[in-house]
Amino acid sequence: MYLVSIVNSTSTTVLYPSAKTSWVGGFLANSNYALVVQAANDAFNPIRYGASSPVLSFTTGNPSMNGPATSLRVVASTGGLLSMAWSDPVDTGGVPIQRYRVKWIDGRGIVQTGETLTPNYIIYQLWSNTSYTVQVQCNNGVPNALTQGWGPYSPAQSFQTSDASLPSAPVQLLPSPVRSGGSVTMTWTPPDDTGGINISRYFVLMKLWNETNFYLSPNQFQVEPTRYTVSGLYAQTAYNFRVLAQNTMGHVLLPGLF
């Protein structure tokens, strides 16, 4: 067993490799480092390390292309989403990673991508009990005519959504509904997480602004799949509305009012 100490003006990195060859990353570009190695054998318990090797000094080069992301994993899942996380490359190219690109492929070979500034990403609009191939690409902003700062993708890994689940809340699309003296027309977008199955329908709940409980709007009709009109209202009267999305697993309320 070995103890490797790598020091520069701002930090110290300590490694405990078991082999005589080890890949070390996390260095800054154009920076000076000093490295020493100590060895240990099985003669002592707890482990004691011998004398340090002569100091090896080295300087890293200019910023370069980063390597692939590491430790890609699922941190949460439902029937309709995979919440992914990963770690930065061992070799960042000597500069911080600026953004990430996530690529996923379903069983039909359909490829989709999304970008994020943080090492985590939620993949929505998936089908339940379905395997998806996921890869992550990192960008450190180092100019490159061919890749524009993007490094290689991480190795392809397969992840599966869970059984069908409840949908998440619908998303309000219009900040202000279309109103008349006796009706309100509301438009929203489908839930980000459908639960992995199709949304079967929506329900509009309502109440007077000073009432406590919501009830199913008695005079609602569908204009479009995500556009409903509620009629039979009193003029110049304040109402609160909520929308429920329903799949075969049930429904979920839209948080907040509109």
Automatic annotation (TrEMBL):
CDD domains: FN3. It holds the Pfam family fn3. PROSITE patterns: FN3. Signal peptide: none annotated. The keyword Repeat applies. Residues 68-164, 169-258 form the Fibronectin type-III domain. Keywords: Repeat. The keyword Repeat applies. This is Fibronectin type-III domain-containing protein. It comes from Aphanomyces astaci (Crayfish plague agent).
